[in-house]
Design brief:
CATH class: Mainly Beta
CATH architecture: Sandwich
Protein name: Sensory rhodopsin transducer
Structural class: mainly beta
Number of domains: 1
Number of strands: 8
Organism: Cognatilysobacter bugurensis
InterPro entries: ASRT, TM1070-like_sf
Strand content: over 45%
Length: 125
């Protein structure tokens, strides 16, 4: 691939992890996911900063996505430097040293009739 796909900075303005779930864990556990595509020739070194309404930002959370790979990261599973609190509104900025594509997905299984939403993140540069 000659032309890189994606951007180096992305934003997800909406985030919320429901406090409980209906159905078997981990498959049906309510969660937020950051789906990352690195279609390039180099490993992507990624940092995520999480912003809140009533407290200072937390981060960076660091991860790598190998070249020509995808990674689906559940925000529920982030622990360092701190877990993302449930039942709390937040937003996130994802920065990479190479172009990537980011999609945001939420599974809300608080009731038996599950809800799944997904949208492309905002490409900031």
């Amino acid at each position: 691939m000659d032309t890189p796909i994606g951007r180096r900075r992305w934003a997800i303005a909406e985030g919320y992890i429901p406090g409980h779930s209906h159905g078997p864990t981990p498959a049906m556990e309510s969660h937020e996911t950051c789906c990352i595509l690195n279609a390039g020739e180099r490993e992507a070194r990624i940092e995520i900063t999480v912003y809140f309404e009533d407290r200072d930002p937390v981060g960076p959370y660091r991860l790598t996505v190998p070249a020509k790979r995808t990674h689906h990261l559940r925000f529920n599973e982030l622990s360092e430097p701190a877990p993302i609190p449930k039942e709390t509104s937040y937003a996130s900025v994802i920065e990479s040293d190479v172009p990537i594509v980011v999609q945001h997905t939420r599974l809300d299984s608080r009731q038996a009739e599950n809800a799944l939403i997904t949208t492309i993140a905002y490409a900031a540069d």
